[in-house]
Please model this.
Amino acid sequence: MTKFRIIYVLVGLLAFFGQAWASNNQLELQKVTQNVYAIVGGLGNRSPENLGNNATFGFVVTSAGVVLIDSGGTDNGAKAIDAIIKTVTNKPVVIVINTGGQDHRWLGNEHFKKQGAEIIASKIAVKDQKARVKDQFFMLGNLVGENAVKSTTPVYAETTFENKYSFELGGTAFEIFHKGPAHTPGDSFVWLPQKSVMFAGDIVFTDRLLGVLDYSNSKSWINVYQSMAKFNPKYIVPGHGSTTDLTHAKRDTYDYLVYLRQAIKDFMENGGDISEIRKIDQSKYKDLPNYDILSGRNAQRVYEELEWE
Model:
């Protein structure tokens, strides 16, 4: 096969499998449905290579501009997201929705704000961002590098809401709901009723083990997941992992949280002490990435929650 024939075949394959595209910053573009896209980051930790974008983001192209769901973990992370958007459309990002308080949900805001974008988030998410921004910059300095921190300026949403915020742009309806704390205190999900697409943010983790952290609330997280699932979306863009459906989302997020809470309740009722927390059997989830790092910490955190409950 000649050199030019090889190039021709490769171009044809790329056109055929045009719904996925990988960038050099460990991000993959996935077409969800017409004019709706996911940008999928890696399943591991933040790193210099991924620019802090170890999460899944999304965007919607409308006739009046682009709506971006979550802006990246650093200024350079935001630029990498913007570059991927530009492979799909030359329309500008006019609205950015921050679905929560984690660094990769909002620390790229400045890049899009400079271009004139409106930033939207729940009031509790903004409060959480302000409370943890110093810790987030410290962590990013260690994991991504000091230069990434120096080039990133925190910019908070100017449009905030308590429980629900709706708007229409270019004929597409958007509904944002904050139903309570989950992975972070201000987590929201974004519903596109005309397209049956749910941007779930950190309410849904797939393809990897979720993390129950010091600022998470596992009991409320279960209830928030149920509120999201009642919309019966055809497509779910999770906070971590590839575009999925309710079956997969339920298995990796809801079922895990329910199982872990019940296992620890049983453990406590049988006199189990937190010093023996690693005896909790989570092996049915051991094939999920990050299991070895997070499973023990998740159990400890839920144990502490249940003590207070």
About this structure: Residues 18-248 form a domain with the Metallo-beta-lactamase; Chain A fold (CATH 3.60.15.10). The longest strand covers residues 197-205. The longest helix spans residues 246-269.
